[in-house]
Amino acid sequence: MSVVHTRFRSALLPLALFSLAAFSLPAQADWILNPQASELSFVSIKKNSIAETHHFKELSGSISDAGAFSLSIKLASVDTGIAIRDERMRNMLFDIAMFPSASVSGKTPANDYSSLPAGTSRIESLKFTLDLHGKTVELNSKVRVTSLSNNKFLISTVQPVIVDAANFELVAGIEKLREVAQLPAISTAVPVTLNLVFDRQ
């Protein structure tokens, strides 16, 4: 066997081992939020009986291969359908100059989302923390995890998560909104719903 041929085989050996290892490794299991396909909505109730739905337009998040999840909400992206109300919420309620974002974090009880057959779903109970307006509170929720394909799944709330403004020192901001809008009352208990789509990284 020639020296050139021997050297050629020696050069190919590391490449072959690398290729074999790549096929042997498990698929990447990190998941990234698809913001265009996701939505976080909340309901405000004024005059004790008038409910209006709002949402945030800018979300980002991920779920690691170990099941740890995080979600970041840009509070300046609040969208109520009325520009002046958006501005008031940004400045009077959320105080985005000091608190530009809110975050949710926790760990899912199961993380084998890629093994869930497409078109099927399961219910999970989640414990998570909500960091909002400088306060961190632990909350619970039941969510439905639905496999959309091998590389995509949806997490949606089974029931709304009730966020109490008093736990985040937001009652004073709600009172400012009530006064400027000349309303008799605005509820301080806010139902929140999630529909989050994650793609395999």
What does this structure look like?
- The protein has helices at residues 3-24, 83-94, 171-181; strands at 31-33, 39-46, 50-56, 59-63, 68-74, 78-79, 101-107, 121-132, 135-149, 152-157, 161-164, 189-200.
- It is α+β, with helices and mostly antiparallel strands and 201 residues long.
- The chain has an eight-stranded antiparallel beta barrel with strand order 1-4-5-7-8-9-10-12.
- Strand 4 and strand 5 form a beta hairpin.
- The longest helix has 22 residues, at 3-24.
- The two termini are 46 Å apart.
- The model is unreliable at 3-29 (pLDDT under 50).
Distance N terminus to C terminus? 46 Å
Strand line-up in the sheet with most strands: 1-4-5-7-8-9-10-12
**SSE series:** HEEEEEEHEEEEEHE
User: Largest sheet at a glance?
Assistant: 8 strands, antiparallel, barrel
What structural category do the secondary elements indicate? alpha+beta
Given the C-alpha coordinates, what overall shape results?
elongated
Low-confidence stretches: 3-29
Number of helical stretches of at least 4 residues: 3
Radius of gyration: 23 Å
- What's the average pLDDT? 87
Instruction: Indicate the percent of residues in helices.
Output: 10-25%
Proportion of strand residues = 35-45%
Number of strands: 12
